[in-house]
Each structure stands twice: as C-alpha cells, then as structure tokens.
Amino acid sequence: MNTTMNSRAVTTTYGLHAYYTLYYSLLTPVIFGIYLYGYIIIFLLGFIGNISSLLTFSRKILRKVSTSIFFLSLSVTDTIYLLTCVYDFTQMGLKIPDPSSTNKYQRLCQFRNFIAYSAINCSAWTLFSISADRWIRTRYPTKVGRICTPRNAAVTLLSILVFSMVMNSHYLTPMFGAFVPGLTILCAPNNVHRVYPYYDFYTKYWQIIRALISIIIPAILMVLALGDMFVNIYKRRRSLLGQRTNEGLTVHSIRNTLTMNNIMDTTKIKQSSFIQKQMFILMLSSIIVFLVTTLPMATYYIIVYQPAVSLDRSITNVVLMLCLFTFTLNINYAINFYIHCLTSKLFRKEFISIMFRKHATRINTISVKM
Predict the structure, then answer these.
(1) Closest by alpha carbon to 55, among 337, 362, 282?
(2) How many Å separate Cα 95 from the centre of its chain?
(3) Among the entry's GO cellular component annotations, what is one (predicted)?
(4) How far apart are CA 42 and CA 319, in angstroms?
(5) What is the CATH number of the domain that holds 189?
(6) How many domains does the chain have?
C-alpha cells in the first residue's frame, strides 16, 4: 500500500513539473523579467508607501476628519490587492510551481479573484468618495459638519465593501476556477461549464460590466466632481476679491482702522486657497493615474473575449499582454502615497511632521480644515 502511494506521489510530482516545464517553455524572458523584477519593485514601493499612508492617516487627530478615513481605507484596499499578487510573483517570477491538489487550487483560485476584484472595486469607489467629500466641502461648506463626518465615512465604506463583495460573489461559485480541471495554472470560467449560461455571461458581458462599474463610472463621477470644484473655487475666490475691492472703495475713510482685519482676512483666504489648490492637484493626479493604469487592462479583457476581433490568441501572446497590463494595473495600487507626496505640499508636510513627531499643533489646525 505504501509503495503504491509513493508511486502515485512520484508520478504526480513528475507530471506537475513536466507540465510547468512545458508551459514555461512557451513564455518569453520578458514575461519572467516583468513578473520577477517588476513585481519586486511594485511590492517595495507599494508596501512601503501604503504602510506610510496607514501610519499617517491612522493618527487619532486625523481620524476625526472624514477625508482621512477614506485615505486610510484606500491604503488598506491597495495593500490587500497587492497581497493577492504575491501568488503570481511566486509562480511566474520565482518559477515555483503550485503543488496544490485540484480542489485546493480551485478554492484558492476562486478566493484570490474574489478578494482581488473586490479590492479593485473598493479602491475605485473609495477614490470617488474622496472626490465627493472634497466636492461637498467646496459646494456646501455650511453643511460639512453634518455630512462629512467620520461616522458617515465609515457607513459609506461599509456600503462600498458590501456592494463589492456581492458584485464579485460569482467568483466563489463552482462555475469559476481552474480553466482546465487538474491544471493549476489558469483561473477562468471552468472549461467544463462552457454549456452553462455563466460562461457566455462572463466572456460576453461581465468584462464590460466590471469595466463600467469599477473604472469608467467612478472615473466619470470623479471628473465631474473635480470640474465643479474648480468652477466653485474660482467663483468664490473672485467673489471674495470683488467684495474686498468694493469695500475698499466705499469705506475709504476707515481703511486704516480695518487694516489689521484685512490682513487677517487675506491670510485666511490665502490659507483656504492653498488647501483647496493642494487637494485639487492631489485629486487630479490621482484620477489621471487611475485611468492610465486601469483602462488598458479592462479594455484588453473586453477585446480578448470577443471572437469577432482579430487578435493573436496564442498562449505566449495572451500571457504577455496580461503580464504587461496587469503590471500596469498594479502600479495604481503601489504609488498613491508617492502621488500624494509629490503633488501635495500639504500631505508632504503632514507626513514629514508625523514621521519626525514635530509641529503637533499645526497638524491639529490643518486636519480640521481638511
């Protein structure tokens, strides 16, 4: 009996290595280079950046601001997504075959895709929530205290999480898993279930639905919010400057008396303008990076499943395209922290002050205005 079991184990191991050797031989050095060196860079930048964001926004004083709650959640979802990429790095970058049994691989495949795509959707709508939060603060400043609260932010994030999990729950069904039963290399709708409606739904409609819900719709809403913010900030600034000019002309006789008040008002206007400008630049850069890194992957997934589209669907080319577009997608979840630091003086100052435990009183002042 032991001899039989050992024999089966040897055969299984030999078959596994033979299968992976054949599969790896079909791929190019560029693919392995991206999965190895590219992913190492992504992990280093991503985990360090996301942890830095977590340290920044998890501060008690910053958690009192709804915007910070959204940024904190964004760091968490980005980190979770990057963790799901470790499997691809191990299998393709380090070339370590997955020795799991068919059943284990099936469950792992389902779980990884469910977590990854739920995190992608959460990240997109959290980014929109940040834009909406800033839009409300600009559009309805008198209602900020009632609407933009940490509690409402938590409720919004919980709603996004539940929606994302329900939306991607089909990944946990038996219809999704190993494309070819017994082969632990490709996650897709099960090839055995081609006759079922799910296969047609996934290949013809799901990629379009996912692209719309997780990328295009939140991106459009973010652009609209950003545009309206820009218009409102511009109008308000002109109104304030015009009001001050008129007051200066009609009350010329008491100018000296109000000099100090005017200086204080000017300082407040400049400070408010600085904060709004920094948040505008931060949001604009985040939206641009989001679109540039996520749209190519979504577009390719839509095209590759359309038989009418003339496309090289050889294993080598498909894996190469998926490798390139997945790497581009991963960039979005690794560089948010660096975008914030490079584009926003406000965020950069806050991070430096927190890291070096300096200017605690200034943090308190600015965080209230965020």
Answers:
(1) 337
(2) 27
(3) plasma membrane
(4) 19
(5) 1.20.1070.10
(6) 1
